[in-house]
Amino acid sequence: MADPERPAPVIKVLLADDQALLRSAFRVLVNSEPDMTVVGEAADGAEALELARRHAPDVVLMDIRMPGTDGLTATRAICSDPALADVRVVMLTTFEVDEYVVQSLRAGASGFLGKGAEPEELLAAIRMARAGEALLSPAATKGLIARFLAQPGESARPEGGRPARLDALTGREREVLVHVAGGLSNDEIGERLEVSPLTVKTHVNRAMAKLGARDRAQLVVIAYESGLVRPRADQP
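and the corresponding structure tokens:
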């Protein structure tokens, strides 16, 4: 049982953006929170990877487009490094309707957020990513994400053939996975299945372990790319 008097661990945040002014604004915002601290700043993807290996942050705020090594390449490197398995990446983008967003999810990012998001949204995104939640910007449509993920092509399946591992899931774990892909929280899934949120969390954790997924965002990718969930015709 957690000690109510013991302060929660401080969330270590790494900032990666080629705009110094924007990094400064993010630094002030993050450091203003008692449960967060900025441990490093990077101006490109190569530096972000170096600092991630040096500081092992909990969350990296990563700009998609940077000169030299871009954010997508850096994210793929971070998320494929076993030594950085606990690092979560939140992609920052100016254009939320962007195929690079989906490529980021495939690369291992926990989600994305528009640079125009409100400060409260950014802080919430950091906390959600640290908690292992899937993060999709409120301004983005899930239908668009679903359509991109369902497109055929060389990148249509995660590395390692993870969709084939759906055979390892129980019927209830598949059912939970469908709801996770629909963007439902553990509480909402519990209400639908008439089980406790803790039971749902157990099923989610088991599904992640069996599928080799880093977090809920990766479960969403696997659900769509495996064909377990398909975009509806009425989605925008």
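(Above: one complete record from the training split.) The CA atoms of residues 12 and 139 lie 26 Å apart.
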